[in-house]
């Protein structure tokens, strides 16, 4: 069994990798790169050479290519100590055209070209655009840069290698003093008096590697982080997984003790502190609060995360759907061709045939007439805002469950063992509850993990219609904003969920039905 | 005993009856007459004439609801395809007329005088909602029919081969697992961005992976009946695979294919509406696009008509198509022909 499941999981992972590869081909190779500038006002205001370099910069940001301007190359040389600041300043001033370069500049340009040509880069030099004899046109300064498209395999490798990141004490390259990990029983965030174990690192990206607090699941870790891809236009610089799981809403301020001992009313979540180079002395506020460069903190917010809202609404709707749909489906099959069956069938046809958009709007209009809130508000204490989204999600699921359960039950009703049971004198009630239902519910049980995990991805239309800040619209938003990182990340998340859901469904099914076995030799 | 249905009487072979003669005094017409036994005749099986498609339609029209639904469908199709030919529709014809926008049917009729155009009021640009709906229906129905035709043809053919050959099955299962995990919205939007959001792009985008789901469904059905006893018997008797496919399996699949088409065609209309709503739909004024553009009018008092009319028409089209298709699917199952 375990071996079989491992094999299935392995196949699933292979599939997921191919899916990511196909998506990368689609969005990086098939799509026109210039599309991202369609609604970029900065781009439209720029001219001449500046516009070209801006274009390449953006392409690097969106992950299309590697782009190295000549000045960055010189800066790197200075940082590594190969040349001094003075040489850099004289080497960086390019001539308006190649033959006007000074000897020093020529020398470094040659080094630059040799280095990047060897790595497969294309070197581009743009001569200055002149408006007269001496005056350079707007944005027409001379430019020199190297660029290289990222090959698919590299891109794929970089992506999968970066998904799981384990924090270690050599993570930060800058000088941070004594690197190491310390264990404390009295977390300094709580003033150092309350018993609360924590592991604190220095030299790691996160300050708190392990800590306890009073929110579920009470013990939290920052050692292993998941990076599904960095967002660019949807949520600048933030990882997709963080975008989905970070809390939203208004700030919740509480009295907290900063590392310097300063006590202040603030919404900062000190447990989320990450390293930000040279930040301590960049502002007086930081100096008054922190004692090291671990100053980048999240804030505590009142709402749930995108995924949290989607899951909360989704899971309630799913549970409701099973509670309503299963008994109704059973009742329909028992009263086949009677009034109840006909009403139920009418309802099923309605849900299947009518466009989902239409009946969700219908629910919204009816709910609005009944005085229920039709737009979601994170900050309100009114629990009624959840009612309409939950109903809109649950009712189609009820129809689906009814349809399939009725179908399976009726199929079972005609089978020989039922006739035999009836001939043996069992009561109809017994036959239905002990024989037919058990057999008919197996395919239904197979679908439970998929519907539970499906709640994590959210619902596109429902969340849009009721303005729920959930995860359902992340993919469409990313597509509309050409945010390639988010598209890849969200698709990977969906693919993993569906692979896991199918495997879990099979496991659950084999647990319920002892006749199903995955370890037998025929398989 | 020979039972002759054609003449409606039963004739019994009387040669070995040696009963006392009771027939005295009866005329020849009243008496049973002796029919000569023929070995050749007794081999013939007489059964009522059976034509598959005739029986399908006989069963289909036995339900009165089907006649109603079919005439409704005919009306909708006629309106969608003939109305735009005879009526000129200019969306921006009343654009400059500020008092012609967002009118209820009553206000529109009061303003422009009674005509069929203003039965459903006027929209955001002062256009006739009634005209817009039929132009939109034509695009939506055409899209759904063409996409369904392509997907069903490719899907059924591939699915049949997929179900029959174990080698093809191994390859196709991998392809299926991969393609099924590609978000459908992403595929469509990438296609829309590569080309333009035109009608044929949308057809291409909806068919490029859409056929695979149908092929998978058909494959499962083929696998289920492929190894049934009657096919095994057929194979043992030496029937060729092609003949088994054509004569044993295809008739069984007809009702499944019709039922599948009945769910697919409405689902493409719904999907087009969905895509338009999330901003990835056609640039032509299809029903989905109409709903998308009139969304803001939904809750505004008095503007409801321009939003609810396309929603209602889209729903009616999909329900009618679904019911007709489902019942046609039921009727095309030979087991209902008794």
What brief labels describe this structure?
heterodimer; A: 523 residues; alpha+beta; four-stranded antiparallel β-sheet; three-stranded antiparallel β-sheet; 13 strands; 51% helix; elongated; B: 338 residues; mainly alpha; two-stranded antiparallel sheet; 13 helices; 64% helix; 2% strand; flat
Brief summary:
The complex is a heterodimer of chains A (523) and B (338). Chain A has 523 residues and is α+β, with helices and mostly antiparallel strands.
Overview of this structure, please?
The complex is a heterodimer of chains A (523) and B (338). With 523 residues, chain A is α+β, with helices and mostly antiparallel strands. Chain A has helices at 2-30, 41-45, 48-61, 70-80, 85-91, 103-118, 152-161, 240-245, 284-289, 306-334, 339-353, 356-369, 387-413, 416-423, 428-446, 448-457, 460-465, 474-480, 484-512, and strands at 65-69, 122-126, 143-149, 164-166, 180-184, 198-202, 208-212, 219-221, 224-226, 254-257, 263-266, 268-274, 296-299. In chain A, strand 7 and strand 8 form a beta hairpin. In chain A, helix 10 packs antiparallel against helix 11 and helix 18 (474-480) packs antiparallel against helix 19 (484-512). The longest helix of chain A is centred in the first third of the chain and has 29 residues, at 2-30. By secondary structure, chain B is mainly alpha-helical. Chain B is 64% helix and 2% strand. The longest helix of chain B is centred in the C-terminal third of the chain and has 37 residues, at 241-277. Chain B is flat and about 105 Å long. The chains are: A alpha+beta (523), B mainly alpha (338). At the A-B interface, helix 1, helix 11, helix 12, helix 17 and helix 18 of A face helix 6, helix 7, helix 11 and helix 13 of B.
